[in-house]
Write a structure and sequence with these properties.
Elements: H1 2-13, H2 23-30, H3 35-40, E1 57-61, H4 74-89, E2 97-101, H5 109-121, E3 126-130, E4 144-145, E5 158-162, E6 165-166, E7 181-186, E8 202-208, E9 217-220, E10 226-232, E11 242-246, E12 252-257, E13 262-266, E14 273-278, H6 287-298, E15 305-308, H7 310-323, E16 339-344, H8 352-357, E17 364-369, H9 390-394, E18 398-403, H10 410-418, E19 424-429, H11 435-443, E20 452-456
Parallel strand pairs: 1-2, 2-3, 3-5, 4-6, 5-7, 7-8, 8-10, 9-11, 10-12, 11-13, 12-14, 14-15, 15-16, 16-17, 17-18, 18-19, 19-20
Pfam families: F-box (PF00646), FBD (PF08387)
Protein name: F-box domain-containing protein
Organism: Citrus sinensis (Sweet orange)
Length: about 450
């Protein structure tokens, strides 16, 4: 009797339960594979033969068409292109995502245009195209054109274009009518008109300036809530370019500027969070460029949360030293600022109290010391302020510090001593283990009777 039961259990365990699942679940499982691997499942059994044809996500990558030395297999490339054709033409079922990553541009760009058009015809919700950028000064250079149908698609909601595309504004006066998330790289001065994108909320621009450009950056949108602006290019021509931002509903702003263009900023009434990551150093020192960083920060007075990089702090310090005599009016008051994160090298210590003085309602503060990093900055050690900022005495309740070997302990001692209502200081030590350091830290006097000091690992752990 027992042997009979065990044989029945064995038969049950051998049953293919996955194949018994409905097509919708099988398609969901296959969506985690590359499209090529998903199609290969058709050889498993007759049950799997056509499941791949209903895949919601079509994701293609030609990396297997290239040898280890970077050379291409033309036969493999042809098979890859034919495979993309077949997948897009094999079914009329709507697809959720079309993704294409290529090591080199397709040999015939008209084919890429055809693929995107087919995805639009299948009511695609998300398109992602990642292609290498060719040198525009090389003979035979050809930028990528998008099919006209993409500008008027009523289903496309997410668009990510990472290559040198050419944009054409439709004659209808409305562009990308349903696109809410738009990530784009721009290598030639053909900035899309974002003001005619009626529902755009999340915009990421990677803008590469070039020597022969005279085009400025213009971002105008009545619906935009999140903007990530990355600017790179030759430093020589940085002062000749300008970025204009007009977005009354913008809530989150991240500027990563390697050239420090000048900024015109309007109507950022809703902005609550900003990250300013500016590349400014002794190598790229220029007081006029430093003032660009200052003028941008002055326009962000409604912030609740602010991140400032080493380069940004350095630029603010240079503007303070070289351009302004009335130092008490150097920065406006950030009345709503409750969270501040600052990355500092040696040069930033004396500008930090000025920021504290302009942030009376600051409650939480993250300090990342980076004095052991590559030295691009003028060395200037910690100088204790003459007056304790109001926010430290009455409002700051939490401080988090990332500390490495040879970083100064004086700022830590100052903050513990002068923060009158501090509840917690989290001290993250990333250098060699040192019991003596920990003991010294715990012995520092504290201005708040309720303050606790915690010793942890790296920031973000």
């Amino acid at each position: 009797m027992n042997n009979s039961k065990s044989r029945k259990v064995g038969k049950i365990n051998k049953k293919d339960r996955i194949s018994c699942m409905p097509d919708s679940i099988l398609c969901h499982i296959l969506s985690f594979l590359s499209t090529e691997d998903a199609v290969r499942t058709s050889i498993l059994s007759s049950r799997w033969k056509l499941v791949w044809a209903s895949l919601p996500n079509l994701m293609f990558n030609d990396k297997l068409c290239y040898r280890r030395d970077g050379t291409s297999d033309n036969g493999a490339l042809t098979r890859f292109e034919n495979f993309v054709d077949r997948m897009l033409l094999s079914n009329s079922v709507s697809i959720s995502k079309f993704s294409l990553h290529c090591q080199k541009k397709p040999r015939y760009l008209s084919r890429l245009k055809f693929w995107v058009a087919l995805a639009i015809m299948r009511n695609v919700h998300e398109i992602e195209v990642n292609l290498p950028v060719d040198d525009p000064f090389e003979e035979g250079y050809e930028p990528v054109e998008l099919p006209d149908c993409i500008y008027n698609s009523e289903t496309l909601e997410i668009l990510k274009l990472e290559t040198d595309f050419v944009f054409k504004s439709p004659s209808s006066g409305i562009c990308f009518p349903r696109v809410k998330k738009f990530h784009v790289e721009i290598y030639k001065p053909n900035m899309p008109d974002f003001s005619i994108c009626p529902v755009l909320e999340d915009l990421s621009i990677d803008y590469s300036l070039n020597f022969d450009w005279d085009a400025d950056i213009s971002i105008s949108s009545q619906t935009l809530k999140r903007l990530n602006l990355m600017i790179g290019g030759p430093i020589v021509f940085a002062n000749e370019h300008q970025a204009t931002i007009e977005a009354p509903k913008l809530e989150h702003l991240h500027v990563n500027d390697g050239t420090l263009v000048s900024y015109l900023v309007y109507e950022l009434h809703s902005l609550c969070d900003a990250r300013l990551d500016i590349d400014y150093s002794r190598v790229r020192s220029d007081p006029v460029r430093a003032d660009h960083a200052l003028q941008l920060l002055k326009k962000l007075t409604n912030l609740k949360s602010l991140y400032l990089s080493c380069g940004t702090i350095y630029a603010l310090g240079e503007a303070y030293r070289h351009l302004y005599d009335a130092h008490q009016y150097f920065l406006p008051t950030f009345s709503n600022l409750s969270f501040l994160e600052v990355r500092i090298r040696e040069y930033g210590w004396w500008i930090l109290p000025i920021i504290f003085n302009c942030s009376p309602n600051l409650e939480s503060f993250v300090l990342i010391m980076d004095v052991n990093g590559p030295e691009y900055y003028v060395e200037a050690g910690w100088i204790e302020p003459q007056f304790v900022p109001y926010c430290l005495q009455f409002n700051v309740k939490k401080i988090e510090i990332l500390y490495g070997d040879d970083d100064p302990l004086e700022p830590v001692k100052y903050l513990l001593k002068n923060c009158g209502v501090l509840d917690k200081m989290i001290f993250r030590y990333v250098g060699e283990s040192s019991n003596e350091l920990c003991k010294e830290l715990l012995m520092f006097p504290r201005g708040s009777k309720t303050c606790e000091v915690e010793l942890r690992g790296k920031y973000g752990d």
